[in-house]
Write a structure and sequence with these properties.
Blueprint: E1 2-3, H1 7-12, H2 21-30, E2 33-37, H3 46-59, E3 64-67, H4 76-80, H5 83-94, H6 107-116
Parallel strand pairs: 1-2, 2-3
Helix pairs in contact: 2-3, 3-5
């Protein structure tokens, strides 16, 4: 699982010197299920938008991508930070997608209450 705010650092990390950007990108595109956790915590930088679009384009209709976010879907466009990229990224995410909206208290809060009681 990779927090989406760490997309750039994950792609650019050397992995102990074993990965180039191209190898890391290829590795991410081959993962059966890619999880972008906590999407929308920060507005994407220009390079991050391009990289995310490339990954999603490569995975489109071939591999699964799961996005978790506390940010309402209606605000995802703004979190991407550029209307053109937002349209392209969201089109690839939302087309053929299953959406699950969870309601209620977070599990962290619930577990905290249980340990206090």
């Amino acid at each position: 699982m990779m927090p989406s705010c760490h997309l750039r650092s994950n792609l650019c990390s050397s992995g102990g010197g074993h990965f180039t950007y191209a190898k890391r990108f290829k590795e991410l595109s081959r993962i059966r299920v890619l999880v972008l956790d906590d999407y929308g915590l920060a507005v994407l930088e220009s390079d991050e938008r391009r990289e995310l679009l490339e990954i999603l384009e490569d995975r489109y209709q071939r591999r699964s991508t799961i996005v978790t976010s506390q940010l309402p879907v209606s605000q995802w466009h703004e979190a991407i930070g550029d209307p053109t990229f937002a349209d392209a990224i969201l089109e690839r995410l939302i087309h053929n997608a299953y959406r699950v909206d969870l309601k209620g208290e977070s599990m962290r809060k619930r577990l905290e209450k249980e340990t206090v009681d």
